[in-house]
Known about the structure:
alpha+beta; about 35% helix
Amino acid sequence: xxKELFTYIVFFILIPFFVEASHSRVPKxxxxxxxxxxxxxxxxxxxxxxxxxxxxxxxxxxxxxxTKIRLLxxxxxxxxxxxxxxxxxxxxxxxxxxxxxxxxAQTIEFKTDYEFDYFGRTLSYLIVDGEDVSAxxxxxxxGVVWYKGIETDWxx
Length: 156
Protein backbone atom coordinates (compact mmCIF):
# COMPACT_ATOMS: atom_id res chain seq x y z
CA UNK A 1 0.00 0.00 0.00
CA UNK A 2 2.79 2.46 0.89
CA LYS A 3 4.62 1.73 -2.36
CA GLU A 4 1.47 2.42 -4.44
CA LEU A 5 0.88 5.66 -2.53
CA PHE A 6 4.49 6.73 -3.09
CA THR A 7 4.22 5.92 -6.80
CA TYR A 8 1.01 7.95 -7.03
CA ILE A 9 2.62 10.96 -5.33
CA VAL A 10 5.69 10.87 -7.58
CA PHE A 11 3.86 10.42 -10.89
CA PHE A 12 0.74 12.46 -10.37
CA ILE A 13 1.90 15.22 -8.06
CA LEU A 14 5.66 15.74 -8.26
CA ILE A 15 6.36 14.91 -11.91
CA PRO A 16 3.94 17.55 -13.32
CA PHE A 17 5.46 20.10 -10.94
CA PHE A 18 8.99 19.42 -12.23
CA VAL A 19 7.88 19.33 -15.86
CA GLU A 20 6.13 22.68 -15.46
CA ALA A 21 9.15 24.15 -13.66
CA SER A 22 11.52 22.98 -16.38
CA HIS A 23 9.36 24.64 -19.03
CA SER A 24 8.98 27.93 -17.22
CA ARG A 25 11.16 30.82 -18.24
CA VAL A 26 12.21 34.14 -16.90
CA PRO A 27 10.58 36.96 -18.87
CA LYS A 28 12.96 39.01 -21.01
CA UNK A 29 11.28 42.21 -19.84
CA UNK A 30 8.37 43.55 -17.84
CA UNK A 31 6.39 43.87 -21.06
CA UNK A 32 7.07 40.20 -21.87
CA UNK A 33 5.73 39.17 -18.47
CA UNK A 34 2.66 41.33 -18.80
CA UNK A 35 1.72 40.29 -22.32
CA UNK A 36 2.02 36.61 -21.46
CA UNK A 37 -0.56 36.81 -18.67
CA UNK A 38 -4.25 35.92 -18.63
CA UNK A 39 -6.51 38.38 -20.42
CA UNK A 40 -9.58 40.06 -18.96
CA UNK A 41 -11.88 42.70 -20.37
CA UNK A 42 -10.90 46.06 -18.88
CA UNK A 43 -12.71 49.28 -19.73
CA UNK A 44 -12.24 52.76 -18.37
CA UNK A 45 -15.29 54.22 -16.61
CA UNK A 46 -16.33 57.48 -14.99
CA UNK A 47 -17.05 58.02 -11.32
CA UNK A 48 -18.32 61.45 -10.23
CA UNK A 49 -17.65 62.65 -13.79
CA UNK A 50 -13.94 61.67 -13.62
CA UNK A 51 -12.03 58.79 -15.20
CA UNK A 52 -9.23 59.07 -12.64
CA UNK A 53 -9.52 60.04 -8.99
CA UNK A 54 -6.01 61.44 -8.97
CA UNK A 55 -2.91 61.20 -11.14
CA UNK A 56 -2.21 57.53 -10.43
CA UNK A 57 -5.61 55.94 -9.63
CA UNK A 58 -8.25 55.42 -12.32
CA UNK A 59 -11.73 53.91 -12.39
CA UNK A 60 -12.20 50.78 -14.50
CA UNK A 61 -14.47 47.82 -14.98
CA UNK A 62 -12.72 44.45 -15.09
CA UNK A 63 -14.83 41.56 -16.36
CA UNK A 64 -18.00 43.41 -15.36
CA UNK A 65 -16.84 44.44 -11.88
CA UNK A 66 -16.28 48.13 -11.06
CA THR A 67 -12.89 48.65 -9.45
CA LYS A 68 -9.77 50.84 -9.68
CA ILE A 69 -6.31 50.55 -11.21
CA ARG A 70 -3.09 51.94 -9.77
CA LEU A 71 -0.73 53.14 -12.47
CA LEU A 72 2.62 51.39 -12.36
CA UNK A 73 5.96 53.18 -12.00
CA UNK A 74 4.30 56.40 -10.91
CA UNK A 75 3.72 58.52 -7.83
CA UNK A 76 1.65 61.70 -8.02
CA UNK A 77 0.67 64.22 -5.35
CA UNK A 78 -2.18 63.24 -3.04
CA UNK A 79 -5.62 64.78 -3.31
CA UNK A 80 -7.48 63.01 -0.51
CA UNK A 81 -5.00 63.71 2.31
CA UNK A 82 -2.48 66.26 1.07
CA UNK A 83 0.18 67.43 3.50
CA UNK A 84 0.03 71.00 2.18
CA UNK A 85 -1.88 73.24 -0.23
CA UNK A 86 0.84 72.85 -2.89
CA UNK A 87 0.45 69.06 -2.88
CA UNK A 88 -3.31 69.40 -3.36
CA UNK A 89 -2.86 71.85 -6.26
CA UNK A 90 -0.28 69.64 -7.98
CA UNK A 91 -2.46 66.58 -7.40
CA UNK A 92 -5.39 68.27 -9.10
CA UNK A 93 -3.14 69.25 -12.04
CA UNK A 94 -2.00 65.63 -12.43
CA UNK A 95 -5.58 64.34 -12.16
CA UNK A 96 -6.87 66.84 -14.72
CA UNK A 97 -4.03 66.01 -17.12
CA UNK A 98 -4.83 62.27 -17.06
CA UNK A 99 -8.57 62.85 -17.34
CA UNK A 100 -8.00 65.14 -20.33
CA UNK A 101 -5.80 62.53 -22.03
CA UNK A 102 -8.51 59.90 -21.59
CA UNK A 103 -11.35 62.24 -22.63
CA UNK A 104 -9.58 63.01 -25.92
CA ALA A 105 -8.15 59.53 -26.57
CA GLN A 106 -8.51 57.59 -29.78
CA THR A 107 -7.27 54.38 -28.11
CA ILE A 108 -6.96 53.24 -24.50
CA GLU A 109 -5.10 50.09 -23.48
CA PHE A 110 -4.20 48.45 -20.18
CA LYS A 111 -1.10 46.32 -19.62
CA THR A 112 -1.29 44.34 -16.42
CA ASP A 113 -0.44 41.02 -14.84
CA TYR A 114 -3.48 41.42 -12.53
CA GLU A 115 -1.56 41.86 -9.27
CA PHE A 116 -3.02 44.06 -6.55
CA ASP A 117 -1.60 46.78 -4.33
CA TYR A 118 -2.17 47.17 -0.59
CA PHE A 119 -5.53 48.89 -1.22
CA GLY A 120 -6.85 46.20 -3.60
CA ARG A 121 -6.30 48.20 -6.78
CA THR A 122 -5.16 46.31 -9.87
CA LEU A 123 -1.62 47.37 -10.82
CA SER A 124 -1.52 48.37 -14.47
CA TYR A 125 0.09 50.46 -17.15
CA LEU A 126 -2.35 52.80 -18.89
CA ILE A 127 -1.56 53.39 -22.54
CA VAL A 128 -3.41 56.27 -24.24
CA ASP A 129 -2.96 56.70 -27.98
CA GLY A 130 0.16 54.53 -27.80
CA GLU A 131 1.77 56.54 -24.97
CA ASP A 132 2.46 55.29 -21.43
CA VAL A 133 0.54 57.69 -19.18
CA SER A 134 2.95 57.16 -16.27
CA ALA A 135 5.87 58.26 -18.44
CA UNK A 136 3.91 61.26 -19.76
CA UNK A 137 3.14 62.45 -16.22
CA UNK A 138 6.81 62.17 -15.24
CA UNK A 139 7.95 63.93 -18.45
CA UNK A 140 5.52 66.79 -17.73
CA UNK A 141 6.66 67.15 -14.09
CA UNK A 142 3.26 66.05 -12.78
CA GLY A 143 4.59 62.94 -11.06
CA VAL A 144 7.74 60.97 -10.30
CA VAL A 145 8.84 57.41 -10.86
CA TRP A 146 7.66 55.39 -7.85
CA TYR A 147 10.16 53.35 -5.85
CA LYS A 148 9.04 51.12 -3.00
CA GLY A 149 9.87 52.62 0.38
CA ILE A 150 10.61 56.13 -0.93
CA GLU A 151 8.00 58.76 -0.17
CA THR A 152 8.01 61.97 -2.18
CA ASP A 153 7.77 65.24 -0.28
CA TRP A 154 5.53 67.45 -2.43
CA UNK A 155 5.59 70.31 0.08
CA UNK A 156 9.22 71.44 -0.01
